[in-house]
Write a structure and sequence with these properties.
This protein is of the alpha/beta class. It is 41% helix and 13% strand. It has 14 helices and 12 strands. The chain has a 7-stranded mixed β-sheet with strand order 2-8-7-6-5-3-4, with helices on both faces. It has a 3-stranded antiparallel β-sheet with strand order 9-12-11, with helices on one face.
Length: 391
């Protein structure tokens, strides 16, 4: 077994190849969260009223350094879906507006966009992005084809959930900005998987999870808003900050940092998660990302060989996840995510946890593997042998 796995609580009887869904938090980071929870419960008023804001600022600084962001525009949210909701619910839309979204957008984020559009009478314009795919130019060309003089916003994944593709967001932001269109990037998988420099990227809005590839506790995510858009973005829950008269903190912080009583320890554990993961290998975060990327490619190649197919995307479009098409499921089955019988059999018969994704729609489906430091090449070899027996 990979010696690095000792730092996680993961069941040693399970070959865990699904870090991408919910992440997995190292024992040391969980211990830090327990320490913070104990401190909070010893004197809740002191902790939440007198001590919380400086602790949040420390955590914000650590995250801003990791993702290349201006601290003043970085707010904590419980997950990227909440970040998307905050942005789209803050837009002053009307019936003339069009909202572009890729057909590979995460379902929850797409639903948030549809809801906001419905309230305003705006139109959601889906852009078909193929998979398998040959280059990032296919993404750019298809999106630009659907831009009109009514386009108000582009919602785009940085890394797609279903197919694990890295989309060319740098180019897309430039193209949209040149047309006077804002971009909201759903970066749920990006922090900790690929290098980020949000200042240089320049998107109007960027939201990312930190419980996935940064390995923070569940409930840690951020929303980054460009300076010229901060005044208009409000949290999903409107609370005390809406009419606060304080002048020592920005309205953006006053609203997002406190939306009601909650457990902030996932956010406050972020400095430890960032530090711990960087310390696991010489070279820190760049080496973590490099190792996971190379392992994901090796795992993809092992599975592609076993399935007798070509890799469905260029290496450059992958980070620490890879998806491959599988033979169709049964036509009389309409499985949801985590509901494919093949996924159940892999777990029940082989003790392998890996998602079988219904995409683009049943009976079509994909298998998506993840690579984290606790994984090793033989995990994918074992999965390949199991698939040969089950398919």
């Amino acid at each position: 077994m990979n010696a690095t796995r000792q730092h996680w609580l993961l069941d040693t009887e399970i070959t865990f190849l699904n870090h991408g869904s919910f992440g997995a938090t190292p024992i040391a980071v969980l211990a830090k969260q327990d320490e913070l929870r104990t401190r909070m419960e010893r004197e809740p008023v002191r902790f939440l009223v007198r001590e919380l804001e400086p602790l949040l600022d420390d955590a914000r600084r650590a995250v801003a350094n990791l993702v290349g962001a201006d601290e003043g525009g970085l707010a904590f949210v419980p997950n990227a879906t909440a970040g998307v909701n905050a942005v789209v619910r803050s837009l002053d839309l009307d019936k003339h507006d069009e909202l572009l979204v890729s057909t590979q957008e995460y379902n929850a984020s797409r639903n948030a966009l549809e809801f906001a559009a419905q309230l305003a009478g705006a139109r959601v314009v889906p852009v078909e992005i193929p998979f398998p795919i040959s280059s990032t130019e296919e993404v750019i060309d298809r999106i630009l084809e659907r831009v009109s003089d009514r386009t108000r916003l582009l919602l785009i994944d940085h890394i797609t959930s279903q197919t694990g593709l890295i989309f060319p967001v740098e180019r897309l932001v430039r193209e949209m900005d040149g047309r006077g269109i804002d971009t909201l990037i759903d970066g749920a998988h990006a922090p900790g998987m690929i290098p980020l420099d949000l200042r240089a990227l320049g998107a109007a809005y960027y939201t990312g999870n930190l419980h996935k590839w940064v390995c923070a506790p569940k409930g840690a995510a951020f929303l980054y808003v460009r300076e010229n858009r901060r005044a208009s973005v409000r949290p999903v829950a409107i609370s005390h900050g809406a009419n606060a008269t304080r002048t020592d903190r920005s309205r953006f912080f006053l609203e997002f940092d406190w939306t009601g009583t909650f457990d902030p320890t996932a956010w406050l554990s972020l400095p430890e998660a960032i530090r711990f993961m960087a310390a696991l290998v010489p070279g820190g975060w760049p080496e973590v990302m490099r190792r996971n990327h190379e392992l994901a490619l090796r795992g993809r190649d092992i599975l592609a060989s076993a399935l007798g197919i070509a890799p469905p995307a260029p290496d450059s479009m992958l980070g620490s996840m890879a998806a491959l098409p599988l033979p169709d499921g049964r036509a009389d089955e309409a499985p949801s995510l985590y509901g494919d019988p093949l996924q159940d059999r892999l777990l029940d018969e082989f003790r392998i946890e890996v998602p079988i994704v219904p995409w683009p729609a049943p009976p079509k489906r994909l298998i998506r593997i993840s690579a984290q430091l606790y994984n090793e090449e033989r995990d994918y070899e074992y999965l390949a042998s199991a698939l040969k027996k089950l398919l």
